[in-house]
Amino acid sequence: MEKQQIYDIIIDNLPVGFSIVDKDGIIIDFNNTAEKITGYTKKGVIGKSHLKMLHGTDDKDACPLFKHALQKHEQLIATEATIMKKNGDFIAVSVTTSPLFDSNGNFIGGIELFRDMTELKRLERERKNILSMFVHDMKNPVIAAEGFISRLLSGKAGPLSETQKNYLELVKEELDGLQGLITDFLEFSRFEATECKPVLGPFNMEASMRKHIEIAKVEAEKKNIAINFETCEAEAVTNADAMLISRVITNLLDNAIKYTNPGGAVTVRLDERSEDILVQVTDTGIGIPEEHLPYIFDAFYRGKRDLKGSGLGLSIAKTIVEAHGGRIWVESIPGKGSTFSFTLPKK
Ligand code: ADP
After folding, report:
1. What residue's CA is closest to ligand 1, atom 3?
2. Does the beta carbon of 69 sit less than 6 angstroms from any atom of ligand 1?
């Protein structure tokens, strides 16, 4: 058998879709699996633009093959992307791309391998839905149990001994923690299932921060942590979703108190700049080791497992800030403390 024939057989029998393009992104080969995934025929796509056929756009950033292999000459392994089928449906695919060079090292085009992820995505969605329903159903028994414990503690069901009171207070604390985990998880699932869409309205950042600092002081005082507020002259008003931004401020303040040892301090700053509003929460706490920094905004990532938490607070904060067109970041020195900052555009 000729080398070319063997090559064609291998390419056609690959269990992944396969598209080769020249350096302008014009398709020069397309295998059987690619035909099955997309609904196109090889004849129908050869000589046409990969971008137009498989993404239905001229935007080069929409296609990993263009963005990485053709423009930057770099490889990309198993990245999630979407492609458009012949019938106009978009499907999720896992894409691997690479630039192609001839034997003299001249750039001649690129190759894309893609795997249909539709079924995998459906199963993942189903699994997440079941988990969310399960966690949601845990909420009511926890609230009911907390209610009864509060009644017992208030003495409404008769007098309690000191030991009984202490035990019930411990149970209540654990249930509070569980309720926090449930709330974080449900909020995270909601953002994952549907895009986080803030309902914008006039929002007075300073007033909101003052309110949250007062609430946070209750926990801070238990640890003898002082909270200072430094604010700008001007009244920092922006367009934002009050409920969602409250969640960001609460998460940052809660963390600052949680990860600061007794006797430390938390400083909250509000600054109005020309384009945006800057909020900073600085603590004198344990800090974050450099190797954790790239991951702390990822869902479920937890640096310190001996303290209670869900690993979702910062991921939720990031989703909310970015949905408002802002940015969130951290600077930290282990053993000295951390500063979490976020911006919200003024317009
Ligand atoms: P958690 O529920 O674990 O606090 P978060 O998403 O809020 O989850 O934070 C993720 C991780 O980032 C934490 O587990 C902790 O390691 C680190 N972290 C967050 N805030 C601070 C802080 N102010 N000081 C030190 N570490 C922090």
Report:
1. 311
2. no
The whole-angstrom separation of Cα 234 and Cα 236 is 6
Selection from 19, 8, 7, 22 nearest residue 106 by Cα: 22
Return the half-sphere exposure (C-beta side, CA atoms, 13 A cut-off) of residue 311: 12
H or E segment to which residue 147 belongs: helix 118-154
Atom 20, ligand 1: which residue's CA is nearest?
255
Give the tokens for residue 139. Answer: 């909420």
Say how many residues make up the chain.
347
CA–CA gap between residue 26 and residue 18 (Å, rounded): 14
Who's near 263: CB < 8 A, 6+ residues apart? 223, 224, 225
pLDDT tens-digit readout, 291-345? 999 999 998 898 877 777 889 999 999 999 999 999 999 999 999 999 999 999 9
| Residue 184 in tokens | 């974080």
Convert the pLDDT of each residue in 25-74 to its tens digit: 999 999 999 999 999 999 999 999 999 999 888 888 888 898 888 999 99
Is the CB of residue 309 below 6 angstroms from any atom belonging to ligand 1?
yes
Which residues are CB-neighbours of 307 under 8 A, at least 6 positions away? 258, 259
Q: Tell me, in angstroms, the distance from the centre of ligand 1 to residue 222's CA.
A: 20
Residue 327, C-beta contacts closer than 8 angstroms, at least 6 positions apart? 321, 342, 343
Token code pair at residue 68: 């990485």
Cβ-count burial 172-211 (b if 16+ within 10 Å, e if not): beebeebbbbbbbbbbbbebeeeebebeeeebebbebbee
